[in-house]
Amino acid sequence: MLKKMMVRAALGFAVLTALPMAALAQIAGAPVKIAMIEGLSGPFGNTGEAVFRNLIWAVERVNARGGVTLALARYDSKGQAEEALSALKSAIDDGARVIMQGNSSATAAALIDAINKHNQREPAKRVLFLNYSAVDPILTNEKCSFWHFRFDAHADMRMSALMEVLKADQALKSVYIIGQDYSFGHAVAREAKRQLAVLRPDVQVVGEELHPMGRVKDFIPYAAKIKASGAQAVITGNFGNDLTLLVKAAKDVGFDGKFYTFYGNALGAPAAIGDAGVGKVVAVADWLPNVQNPQSEAFYQSFRARFPQPADDYVHMRMQLMVEALAQAIEKAGTTDAIAVAQQLEKVNITFGAQTGTMRATDHQFQQPLVVGVMDKLGTPGVKFDVEGSGYGFRVVKTIAAERAEQSTSCHMQRP
């Protein structure tokens, strides 16, 4: 317990506002049940397990300090939307009142539709949906929902951050766009072409390809096409094994161009590409371990103390902010009623590990700074920490303030 108290002090946790005794009594009973619905088996099982480590660590912190108590249960969607919908029903039957998911925008869209219908049908059992990484922009635009809150920057926001670096690379004249063949992959390709046309009309798209998600075992044919196209860089939103296998194949065929990625900073990708990625693999994130301030460093080191195995080294600041925001919203609402908690989440302002974010009530899109990093060897200036024991880390080369990362929304939210 003393160690946990010291970690909390190092990270500078804010003390929550005191609540009236009646409100505290209302939320201090049974734990608030959270259901993480994620692919824990199949081709993206490693990404699901990485999420679980982040969420359970955040829940442990909340529970250790007292006040609201959270209970996290995991449900395996096997990476399939149909399985996720079945898991949603099971989770609600088990008493879950908060659903968390993110590793597929298609699954997130299905869950939003199902939760909208469930909450209308059964107002006594309403649930909230907290999304940590399903980043298709449509989810907080045309498909926005009062019950859904997204804590990750959406694909267009991430692409804009990447373009802050790409547009400055005057030697770059040709790119190849490759991604997973589902809603998110389509959104990335579409926005990459749009932003290139505006910011770098001199850059030619020499190839564009979408491949089956999670089913390609050999990316050599794709990598060979990329090399043959003459592309100087690849733009991809691939994640998990689809990214790792792609960069491995690119290395094997001798492609020596850059990779502009959404998720190239972990889950095997740096180790797979090795020295060939130094100065060439670019990744955008809400936070990176080599953000240089004492609070950020303490945050990262405390995660590594909790999960010391190199393979477990994939920490997400946004997931910590999300769980902290949920705890804050429940405390301030003084109840676990879904509408009351949602109304508090709409105006949440949270600071953790020197990262501050706010929820935009208009569309429930979290607003936070973004960073872009470039892969480099451990020990080089700006790379104090490597990734997964690989010997490679990401040096922060661009920080985008929250107000600059923010984008307009077409959301017309229906409120209860």
Topology:
Layout: H1 2-11, H2 21-27, E1 32-38, H3 45-65, E2 70-76, H4 81-93, E3 98-101, H5 105-121, E4 128-131, E5 148-150, H6 155-166, E6 174-180, H7 183-199, E7 204-211, H8 220-229, E8 233-236, H9 241-253, E9 258-261, H10 269-273, E10 281-285, H11 294-306, H12 317-333, H13 338-345, E11 349-352, E12 355-360, E13 365-367, E14 370-377, E15 392-400, H14 402-405
Parallel strand pairs: 1-2, 1-3, 3-4, 4-5, 6-7, 6-8, 8-9, 9-10
Antiparallel strand pairs: 10-14, 11-12, 12-13, 14-15
Summarize the structure.
This protein is of the alpha/beta class.
Low-confidence stretches: 1-26
- CATH names the topology of the largest domain as Rossmann fold
- By secondary-structure content and strand pairing, the structural class works out as alpha/beta
CATH architecture descriptor text of the largest domain: 3-Layer(aba) Sandwich
Q: What characteristic shape results from the CA principal axes?
A: globular
The string of secondary-structure elements, in order, is HHEHEHEHEEHEHEHEHEHEHHHEEEEEH
Number of helices: 14
Q: Would you report the number of β strands?
A: 15
Proportion of β residues?
Answer: 15-25%
- Report mean pLDDT, rounded to a whole number: 92
Radius of gyration: 21 Å
Q: How are the strands ordered across the major sheet? A: 7-6-8-9-10-14-15
CATH class bucket of the largest domain = Alpha Beta
CATH superfamily of the largest domain: Response regulator
- Cα separation of the termini: 42 Å
